Amino acid sequence: MVEAKLLYKILGSLLIMLGLLMGGCALMAGCYQEDDIMAFLISSLFTGCCGFIFKYLGRNATNDMSRRTAYLVVTLSWLLYSLFGMLPYIIGGYINSVTDAYFETMSGFTTTGATILDDVERLPHALLFWRSLSQWIGGLGIVFFTIAILPSLVGGSVKVFAAEATGPVRTKMHPRLSTNAKWICSIYLVLTVACILSYYAAGMEWFDSVNYSMSTTATGGFAPHNDSVEHYHSAAVEYVSLLFQFLSGINFTLLYIVIFKRQLRQLVQNSEFRLYLFVVSFSAIVIMAILIYNNGYGTERAFRCALFQVVSFITTTGLFNDDAGAWPHITWVILGICMFLGACAGSTSGGFKCIRGSMVLKAMQNEFRQILHPSAVLPIKVNGQNVPSSKVATLLAFFALYVVMCLISATIMIAAGIDNTNAITIALSCMSNVGPTLGTEIGPVMSWAGLPDGIKWICSFLMLVGRLEIMSVMVLFTRGFWTDN
After folding, report:
1. 448 within domain boundaries
2. What kind and span of H or E run contains 385?
3. DSSP conformation class of 174
4. How far apart are CA 144 and CA 138, in angstroms?
5. N or C, which terminus of the chain has less Cβ within 10 Å?
C-alpha cells in the first residue's frame, strides 16, 4: 500500500520550499526592476498555496515509509517541480507553449541543459537566475537537497535516498543519512563558491559568475549567453570552466575525503577515478591531434578546445567553447562515447557512469579467465571490495534497459522525420542528461525549438528517466509495484 497522507505531506513540504525559492527570484526581479516580478510573485503564491493544501491533506501522517512510497515520492517530486517550475515562463509570457515550458524546466532540474530558447539573452535577470538555480538544485537531487537542509520533512529518508541516488554502489561517510547529506552538500557549496570566485577573477561580472558557477558545478549547461562560455573569448574563463566541470564529475564522497580528510591516496587508488581520468586524457589527446592536422588549429587552441569539449561531454555539462558539430565526424564518435559513459557515480553528472564501465570491463576480463580456468571462482572487485552477483545482474539489466530505451526513442524520432545522427544523439543526450547533440539539424550550439511537440515530451520523459537512472521511474510501470505486498 502507498501511504497517501505521507505522500501528500512530503510533496507539500517540497512545493512550499519551491514557492520560497520563487519568492527569492521575485525579490531579485524587484532589485533589477524588470517586468518578470509579477510572474514570480504569482508563481510563488500559487505554488506555496498548493503546497499548504498538500500539507493539510497529509496532516497527522506518520514517517513510516515503505519502499514503494519512496519511489513514488521521488518520481512525483521531479514531475511536480517541473510542472510548477515552468509557471514563471508561462505567466511572464517568455515561453507561450506548455510543451516548450515543461521541456525547458525538466531540462533544468535534470541538469540536461537542452534549451528551446533561440535567444536566451532576451530573458530578464531573475529568469536567467531561475534557470541556473533549477539546475543547481537538481544537481544533487531535489529530495536529497531537502534531506540535507530539513531532514525532518522527509520520512524514511534512507529509502528515498536509495531511489534518487546515482550509481550502483552507495558509499556513506556517516551512519546518519542527514549528516552524510550535509557533508556532501558542504562539498557542493565549496565547489560552487570557489567556482564563482574563480570566474570573477577570470573577468566575469558577479551575476554571470554566479549563473555560470551553478551551471558548471551542477554539470547542467544552461548559460546566460547564447554562445555559452565562448561569449567571453577568454582562455582563462574556459580553463576555469573545464577545471570545475572535471571536479564536479568526481564522486563527492571521494572529494570530501580528499579535501577535508586530506587523504589524496584514496583518489589515486580509486579505480573509477582512474578510468575517468584515462578516458578524459586519451580522448582529449586524440581529438587535439585531429584538430591540429585536419582543421589547422594551433597547439594551444586545439588542446583547450579538445579538452573542454571532452570534459563537457563526459561530465554531461553541455557548455561549449567551440562548435564541435563542425569538427570531423570521427570526433563525434569519441564525444558520443564520452556522452554515453559519463563521469563518476555520486557526482552531479549523468550517463552510464565510470564505475559501471569499470565493472563491465572487469566482468569481461573474468570471462576470458574463466575460459582458461573453468573451475576458478573469479569475483568482481571494485576498490578492493567484492561486488555481489546481484549487483552484477542489476548492472546488466540497467545496461539493457539503457540501450533499449535509446534505440526505441531514436526509432520513433527517425519515424518522425529526424535524421539518423540527430535521432541517436538526441536520445543519448536526453538519457545521459548531456544537452548538446551532434548533427546538422540540431548541433551542439543550437536550440531544440525545431523538434515536434510529441518528440519534446518523449525527450522530457527520457531526461527524467536518465536522471533517476531508469529503475526508479520504470518500476512504477510494473504491475507488481501496485499489486504486490
Report:
1. no
2. strand 385-386
3. S
4. 9
5. C
CA distances from 471 to 297, 318, 459 (A): 44, 25, 17
Identify whether 57 is part of a domain. Answer: no
Residue 381, strand partner residues: 386
Distance CA 120, CA 374 (A): 60
**Who contacts 347 (Cβ-Cβ below 8 Å, separation ≥6)?**
166, 219, 248, 249, 250, 251, 252, 315
Here the cell at position 454 is 510529441
Please state, in angstroms and rounded to a whole number, the distance separating the CA atoms of residues 45 and 91: 13
Nearest 5°: the CA angle 344, 342, 243 is: 70
Closest CA to 452 of 113, 103, 105, 111: 103
- pTM, two decimals, is 0.90
CA distance 237 to 81: 32
Let me know: does 52 contact 3? Beta carbons within 8 Å.
no
**For the chain, how many helices (H) and strands (E)?**
22, 2
C-beta atoms surrounding 183 within 10 Å = 18
The count of structural domains within the chain is 1
Nearest to 129 by CA among 5, 32, 54: 32
The pLDDT profile of the chain, 485 residues, written as one tens digit per residue, is: 667 888 898 899 889 999 999 999 999 999 999 888 999 999 999 999 999 999 999 888 777 777 888 888 888 999 999 999 999 999 999 999 999 999 999 999 999 988 999 899 999 999 999 999 999 998 887 766 666 555 555 554 555 656 566 655 555 544 455 666 778 888 899 999 999 999 999 999 999 999 999 999 999 889 999 888 988 999 999 999 999 999 999 988 888 888 888 888 888 888 889 999 999 999 999 999 999 999 889 999 999 999 999 999 999 998 888 888 889 989 999 999 999 999 998 888 888 898 888 888 888 888 888 888 888 777 887 777 787 777 888 888 888 899 999 999 999 999 998 888 889 989 999 999 988 787 666 767 677 888 899 999 999 999 999 988 888 888 888 888 888 76
Range of the domain at 365: 166-387
Q: Which helix (H) or strand (E) holds 386?
A: strand 385-386
Q: In this structure, are strands 381-382 and 385-386 parallel, antiparallel, or unpaired?
A: antiparallel
330 found inside a domain: yes
Going by C-alpha positions, the residue among 243, 217, 242 that lies closest to residue 347 is 217
| Alpha helices by DSSP H, 141-219 | 142-149, 157-164, 177-201, 206-217
User: Which H or E run contains 103?
Assistant: helix 98-109
Q: Is residue 231 included in any domain, yes or no? A: yes
Count Cα atoms within 13 angstroms, Cβ side, for 479.
Answer: 0
Say which DSSP state 93 is in.
T
Alpha-carbon Rg for the chain, nearest whole angstrom, is 22
Q: Which three cell numbers stand for residue 261?
A: 580528510
Q: Cell digits for 481?
A: 509495484
